[in-house]
Fold General transcription and DNA repair factor IIH.
Amino acid sequence: MPSQGIVIGANDSDSDISIDLEQTSRPRGKGKGKANDKKKADKGKSKAKEQAYTWEASFTRSWDTVQEDEAGSLQTSVEDLMARGRRRRLLAPASAIRRTIIRHLVLILDLSSAMMDRDMRPTRFDLMLQYAREFIAEWFDQNPLGQIGVVGMRAGLGERIGEMSGNPQEVLKSIADRHKLEPTGEPSLQNAIEMARGSMSHLPTHSSREILLIFGSLTTCDPGNIHDTLNACVKDKIRISLVAIAAEMKICRELCEQTGGQFGVAMNEGHFKDLLFELVPPPAQRAMTRSVGGGAGGTNPAADLMMMGFPTRLPDSSPLSLCVCHSEMKSQGFLCPRCKSKVCDVPTDCDICGLMIVSSPHLARSYHHLFPVSPYDAV
Ligand SMILES: [Zn+2]
Ligand SMILES: [Zn+2]
């Protein structure tokens, strides 16, 4: 039955007829439809194929932006995307900006039950831990003079997970065991921020105080007025940045905007990682002073000198002695140049005399943020 029209059309050389027959035969061949409605139906169908819902108009399919090359490979597209990302990174820091290279960051992880959602694979919680580890490694690589502490939010409390430390291994160890961090209960933004603020209150003014929040919940369970906490953070010059996994909350955006931090909502796994890694380079100091409110002292603080010591490294064969940081008998370590006490790791602050002890490669490494390499000319 369906082949009949086609056979006739093929025999007849008249083009008009063959087109007509072809059109009538098409819906019949699929076993549905009347000849009268065929045009309407076809039109409707093709339109429906392009756009089933209006929201699809603004929705670009990620697989449409990727084009295969002649050989059918995606290699060139992937390379193009990567090159574009690299170029964007190079274009950003063109001139020298005053930045804070001695950084102190408290990473606040949401450990509420909302983190068990599976909208990000495998779960928000597992993904967050994985990215947090990568973030910490990258952060210390770029900011060897910095220190990170970790605070968790769960069951309505702030929970200290890792003390402020300049040793990446120590920080990574604090979030290594996922069973200790099992999500439960409601998060409390205020409790966690207050805890982070407390651990940074003693820091000197030349170092930055930053909070990075990863927030997957849509609620917060606070004991008091969170705006008081926000004002206290502004006063203490603490910069809050927040990466939301679920959706934007007004208080979250306010926390970031008033303290001069960055706010972002992760759309997917890749975007989540991008948002986190945008916070790896040290923040420009200009933005921070502006957010403070432009008071007499806050406009542009004069650069002041700070004292640093370059330690003497003890050889592994040196006699055993106690270190001042852990009170352990060890042969290797570093000697403070001022008080000659022994510390295990640099960079650190000497526990005895308070001198900041750094090694010169660390200092040099931090310097490239202040004097960025000019972008290469593409040839
Ligand atoms: Zn020690
Ligand atoms: Zn010392």
User: Anything to note?
Assistant: The two ends are 64 Å apart (CA to CA).
